[in-house]
Amino acid sequence: MKILDRRKMIAVNGALLALLAVSLVACALIGPVAIDLKRALGDFFSPDAEILFRARLPRVLLGAAIGGGMAACGVVLQAMLRNPLACPQMLGVSGGASLGGILGMIFFPNWLLPVAGGFLGEISWVPLAAFLGALLSMALVYRLALFRGRLHPYHLLLTGVIFNSFVAALIMFLNSIVDFYQAQGLLFWLMGNLSTRAYPTVAFIAGYVAAGFLWLWSHGVRLNLITLGEEAALQLGVEVASVERQVFLATSLMIGAMVSVSGMIGFVGLMIPHAMRLLVGSDHRLLLPASFIAGAIFLCWADTLARVLLAPAELPVGIVTAFFGAPFFISLLYREGRKLPV
Amino acid sequence: MSAAIEIENLFFAYGPRRVLEGVSLAIAKGEMVGVLGPNGSGKTTLLKIVSGVLGVRRAVKLDGTPIESCSRRDLSRMVAVVPQESEIHFPFTAAEIVLMARASHHGRLVLEGAGDLEAARRSMAATDTAALADRWLHELSGGEKQRVMIARALAQEAEILLLDEPAAFLDLKHQLGVLDLMRRLNRERGLTIVAALHDLNLAALFFPRLLLLENGKIFRDGVPEEVLTEDTIRRVYGVDVRVERRAPERRPHIFVHR
Q1: Contacts of A1 in chain B (CB under 8 A)
Q2: Mind listing the pLDDT tens digit for each residue in A161-216?
Q3: How far B129 CA sits from the closest chain A CA (Å)?
Q4: Which residue from A3, A237, A342 is facing B99, i.e. has the nearest CB?
Q5: To the nearest whole angstrom, how far is the Cα of A45 from the nearest Cα of chain B?
Q6: Residue numbers in B near A244 (CB within 8 A)
Q7: Which helix (H) or strand (E) segment is B222 a member of?
Q8: How many domains is chain A partitioned into structurally?
Q9: Distances, alpha carbon B205 to alpha carbons A7, B25, B161, B192, B248, in Å
Q10: In terms of pLDDT, which residue wins out, A251 or A117?
Q11: H/E run at residue A25
Q12: Count of alpha carbons within 13 angstroms of residue B84, beta-carbon side
């Protein structure tokens, strides 16, 4: 009887963590400008240190946090909604965050909020407006999807998707009434990017993502049961309505925070969960941490490619995630597809 | 000694549609009861209420305890259910599915312990599914899948086992296999078994006590000879049949005219 045991947990997560550590260092060293690690570490005021610590490292860390967060949210949303197409984009909260960010860019484009007197960098108002949009849309979707006193997966799915199309209409409308130069900026933000120089932003996202991940991981066994359907889960001892509520809150807060900072970076949250399910199995006690780490690795590398492929110009990272992720996933599906229940 | 299942004056409706109207019933520990009745007569609903899934919690006592005072976790250790059909959206092996029964026994995040593995092994041995352990559930045949679901229910180690049409979708041999297994579990482990059934002949053959439901009410409750007569079947199912007694136990056997 092959089942999930401690050895497999440690082996899989350990290997992935080691790969993540290597990726973080490698991605921080790779870029359009070559840097000397020895000089960067030896002289804190050298240009090498400036590039490594001020430009690349925060960005690489942000990529890892967001990749992990998106993948973790994808895993639990697919489980809770019992739908293999579920992904972070369809929760409504991403649309709300985008709209908030767009409004922020239109109405106060150049305001910057210095953190610790500017010493720790500056935060634009845009992510704050986006996060406010995320919180408002989360409350609205929650209220609208509440059916007979509980958050029904079916209603949640439809409400989220339809809310997002409504918001998309508003965004396209705003995009068509602003001037050309501004529209270009909005579009770039909407496509998602990870450029940041502010460690407080990275810390904010990493905190949200880590806390949310632990919250979701604590429901690992229950998520397994919930994939068997509501009645089976209830009957096997899961308070389904409570788990659904907690999953919605945790994922909404995580997605809201992530989209506020980086825009909507697609594909990671859809593909990584499926890829990891084929590779490590469907047990969420392992699937969730494994997807979290794999998502972090994947987005690190995708963003590094986005930085260097057309250097000194930058590609939107969403192009890279889909361009390289799709063929990889299709080949995996082709090889391992028989594992899937049809 | 309190009854394993005690239901007093149970009413239930899905919105305006009344499904159960004033059902009262006591099932002693170690009884094996078949629940019969036409489609829509309330069989499945009755089972769902006893397992606490439908949220109606008044009117039902398990082992003398009203189920409203039990948490989901407690309930899942008292009652195990074999559903009529099982949903499967993601790949799980048969062993993983059986081990899910242990969720209410072990902690939140921790892996299954030796006791959990032992319970799973024993129930897979009892249902002849040990050889299927590492196969994907969605690749199993209907009969194999049903036996895995029974193994999962057994691994819950509950005293009460509820089955919704355990023989539906199975061929004759597997129908008999499942019902033989029910009888063995009932006799050897003293499990209280309640099963909703459509096949009247199999019900008469295997179940010492039958409940016949009609429009949400208990129409007859007793031994097969009393419950399955030409008269009751005409009245409840609206079908003319001939009932004969078959040796050796002289259980009623139903023949359909056409």
Answers
A1: 95, 117, 120-121, 130, 133-134
A2: 899 999 999 999 998 888 888 888 888 888 888 887 678 888 989 999 999 999 99
A3: 11
A4: A3
A5: 46
A6: none
A7: strand B217-222
A8: 1
A9: 49, 22, 19, 18, 11
A10: A251
A11: helix A6-29
A12: 13
As a whole number of angstroms, the distance between CA A287 and CA A277 comes to: 6
Tokens 């129409």, residue located: B219
Lowest mean pLDDT among B64-68, B91-95, B155-159, B231-235: B64-68
Q: CA B117, CA B105: separation in Å to the nearest integer?
A: 12
Cα separation, A88 vs A74, in Å, equals 6
**Strands ordered across the beta sheet of B160-164:** B79-82, B160-164, B192-196, B32-36, B209-214, B217-222
The CA distance from B224 to B59, in Å, is 27
DSSP readout, B41-105? Answer: SSHHHHHHHHTTTTS--TTEEETTEEGGGS-HHHHHHHEEEE-SS----S--BHHHHHHGGGGGT
Would you state the structure tokens that stand for residue A213, as one six-digit string?
């991940």
Which of B72, B117, B138 is nearest residue A237 as measured by Cβ atoms? B72
Residue A123 confidence (pLDDT): 63
Distance from CA of A138 to the nearest CA of B (A): 27
- Least CB–CB distance from B109: residue in A217, A282, A339: A217
The amino acid that residue B212 corresponds to is L
Residue A259 maps to which CATH number? Answer: 1.10.3470.10
Please tell me the distance from the alpha carbon of residue A244 to that of residue A180, in angstroms, as a whole number. Answer: 43
| Those residues with Cβ within 8 angstroms of residue B3's Cβ, 6 or more apart along the chain or in another chain | B26, B27, B28, B29, B61, B63, B64
B70: left (phi over 0), alpha (psi -120 to 50) or beta: beta
State the pTM of this model. 0.90
Q: Are A232 and B133 a contacting pair at CB < 8 A?
A: no
Instruction: Tell me if A342 is assigned to some domain.
Output: no
Q: Under an 8 A CB cutoff, do B72 and A224 touch?
A: no
Peptide bond into A312 cis (omega under 30): yes
Contact yes or no for A224 and B100 at CB 8 A: yes
Q: Does residue A1 fall inside a structural domain?
A: no
Residue A13 lies in a domain: yes
Nearest to A236 among B96, B104, B130 (CB): B104
* Chain B residue with Cα closest to A236: B76
Chain A neighbors of B89, CB-CB under 8 A: 82-84, 227, 341
Domain that holds residue A317: 6-337
CATH 3.40.50.300 fits B5-88+158-256, yes or no: yes
Which B residues in the span 187-246 are in contact with A, Cβ-Cβ below 8 Å? none
User: Which three-class secondary structure state does DSSP give residue A122?
Assistant: strand
Q: Do A221 and B109 lie within an 8 Å CB cutoff?
A: yes
Q: B55: alpha, beta or left, given left = phi > 0 and alpha = psi -120 to 50?
A: left
Residue A21 lies in a domain: yes
Of A6, A232, A342, the CB nearest to B111: A6
The Cα A64–Cα A342 span in angstroms is 33
